TrEMBL record:
Principal location: membrane
Keywords: ATP-binding, Cell membrane, Copper, Copper transport, Ion transport, Magnesium, Membrane, Metal-binding, Nucleotide-binding, Repeat, Translocase, Transmembrane, Transmembrane helix, Transport
High-level lineage: Bacteria, Pseudomonadati, Pseudomonadota, Alphaproteobacteria, Rhodobacterales
Organism: Aliiroseovarius salicola
Source species, domain of life: Bacteria
Keyword Transport: yes
Coiled-coil region list: none
Full-sequence range covered: 466 to 756 of 835
Protein name per the record: Heavy metal translocating P-type ATPase
Keyword NADP assigned: no
Length: 291
């Protein structure tokens, strides 16, 4: 394509709310074979809600939620927001908190009212040698419903399984279908539970799922997918910035974090994934010099 057609292409893309920060991305999209997408906030709304809370070992529901919410009040993860919102809706008051720490990709911990509280993925409980007992299967069953299971332990004993649900964006199914229509293979990369990720991927007809990825593992996951051909990655979070920079074409959702936007080659003005399809469309037209 000529410099003029690139200029026309980027201009046209901007009219569709797709900002090409680098002209060569327009060309690179034509060579792309795989589109990998982050799940939370990209395929989904990124605003989970607490749906389930099942206690064990005689623990009281409201008491567990109160303790867990006190810890989550210190975290900025969307899951944390879902839990604190649910506690507020039940009118539960927060406890006295000390020594908060966030274990990236695993969960959070703190002392609340003198009790040691852990909240997070099953792998956090395994790391801390906490037996899930009967809640293991309960959590897996919640995962099979497409919800993210989280476990809470109090003073080293399993107390509850909680599950949050993050709705799929309304624009996602049609966007995935259109990407398939362009002959692209579609992958999803997430830190979420494997079972949960599998359900969401199968609902959307996604071809490859890479789940339970630690934040520092996203780039390695992308490198593995790259064996299938040139690769675009779509993401929104701070965690996604390294993957956006690594991909042949990094596409950031404009409603995402500044760090993601700065690392991207292409920025979508809205959270609507139709923008990804538009980017491919405009790239094809530009390369064929069609106006
Ligand atoms: P993603 O953005 O793909 O969900 P993260 O690395 O942020 O990936 O989180 C991975 C997993 O770690 C979550 O699905 C959850 O199980 C656990 N986790 C992370 N932060 C929290 C938190 N504040 N409270 C509970 N669990 C958490
Ligand atoms: Mg995200």
């Amino acid at each position: 394509a000529t410099p003029t057609s690139i200029m026309v292409g980027t201009g046209r893309a901007a009219e569709f709310g797709v900002l090409f920060r680098k002209g060569d991305a327009l060309q690179m999209l034509q060579e792309t074979r795989v589109v990998a997408l982050d799940k939370t906030g990209t395929l989904t709304e990124g605003r989970p809600e607490l749906i389930d809370l099942i206690t064990t070992n005689g623990f009281d529901e409201d008491n567990v939620l109160r303790l867990v919410a006190a810890v989550e009040a210190q975290s900025e993860h969307p899951i944390a927001e879902a839990i604190t919102r649910a506690a507020a809706q039940r009118g539960l008051t927060e406890g006295q908190i000390e020594g908060f720490s966030s274990i990236t990709g695993y969960g959070v911990e703190a002392i609340v009212d003198g009790k040691h509280i852990l909240v997070g993925a099953d792998r956090l409980m395994m790391r801390e040698n906490i037996e899930l007992a009967d809640l293991d299967e309960t959590g897996e069953a919640l995962g099979r419903k497409g919800r993210t299971p989280l476990y809470a332990a109090i003073n080293g004993h399993i107390a509850a399984v909680l599950a949050v649900s993050d709705p799929i964006k309304s624009s996602t199914p049609a966007a995935i279908e259109a990407l398939h229509g362009l002959g692209l293979s579609v992958a999803m990369i997430t830190g979420d539970h494997q079972g949960t990720a599998d359900v969401i991927a199968s609902e959307l007809g996604i071809d490859h799922v890479v789940a339970e990825v630690l934040p520092e593992g996203k780039v390695a996951a992308l490198e593995a997918l790259r064996e299938r051909g040139k690769l675009a990655f779509v993401g929104d979070g701070i965690n996604d910035a390294p993957a956006l920079a690594t991909a042949d074409v990094g596409i950031a959702i404009g409603t995402g974090t500044d760090v993601a936007i700065e690392a991207a080659d292409v920025v979508l003005m809205s959270g609507d994934l139709t923008g990804v399809v538009n980017a491919f469309d405009i790239s094809a037209r530009t390369m064929r010099n069609i106006r």
